Amino acid sequence: MTDDQLFECARQARERAYAPYSGFFVGAALLTMTGEVFSGCNIENASYGLSQCAERVALGNAIAHGSRQFQTLALCLQGDGSPCGACRQALNEFAPELTVLIGGPNGNIRQRLCLNELLPNAFGPQNLKTSSLPEPRNH
Ligand SMILES: [Zn+2]
């Protein structure tokens, strides 16, 4: 799958976004290491804090279908923007080396980044290895 094809999946996902409050529509498409694509769109809620980002919806969609290894995320949004901090952290859990393509609804990819540029010195699973956990105390 080409970057443009993946980006088209994100552009189509953006058309399904539910964003009646912000009017900020976002689509995401996550390409797995085996070539599958899982998409997501942002889903807002009248209780604003419950709103979900497109990136994490795509990630949850992929995880729920059994995929955990990813190579590229395409993100389609209007204007300038990149994944929020929470999404950077969520994506880092599974793919610290993820390629992130960002572009607008016109279909043009304007940025190509690596997740480790967006989230340097990330906290991740490696920080919670069991060998680094304190030994239980014996009484
Ligand atoms: Zn986000």
UniProtKB/TrEMBL annotation:
Q: Which InterPro entries match?
A: APOBEC/CMP_deaminase_Zn-bd (IPR016192), CMP_dCMP_dom (IPR002125), Cyt/Deoxycyt_deaminase (IPR050202), Cyt_deam_tetra (IPR006262), Cytidine_deaminase-like (IPR016193)
Q: Binding positions for Zn(2+)?
A: 53, 84, 87
Coiled coil ranges? none
Query: Pfam families under this entry?
Result: dCMP_cyt_deam_1
One function term, GO molecular function aspect:
identical protein binding
| Active-site feature positions | 55 (proton donor)
- Catalysis performed (reactions): 2'-deoxycytidine + H2O + H(+) = 2'-deoxyuridine + NH4(+); cytidine + H2O + H(+) = uridine + NH4(+)
List residues binding substrate. 42-48
Check the record and name the CDD domains matching this protein.
Answer: cytidine_deaminase
Q: Does the keyword NAD apply?
A: no
Gene Ontology biological process: nucleobase-containing small molecule metabolic process; pyrimidine-containing compound metabolic process
| Record's keyword terms, sorted | Hydrolase, Metal-binding, Zinc
Where does the sequence pass through the membrane?
none
Q: What class of enzyme is it?
A: hydrolase
List the cofactors: Zn(2+)
EC assignment: 3.5.4.5
Boundaries of every CMP/dCMP-type deaminase domain copy: 1-126
Q: Quote the Gene3D superfamilies the UniProt record gives.
A: Cytidine Deaminase, domain 2
Q: Which GO terms describe its cellular component?
A: cytosol
The family database entries (PROSITE patterns) matched by this protein are listed as: CYT_DCMP_DEAMINASES_1, CYT_DCMP_DEAMINASES_2
* Reported function: This enzyme scavenges exogenous and endogenous cytidine and 2'-deoxycytidine for UMP synthesis.
Q: Which family does it belong to?
A: Belongs to the cytidine and deoxycytidylate deaminase family.
Protein name as catalogued: Cytidine deaminase
What organism, scientifically named, is this protein from?
Oceaniferula marina
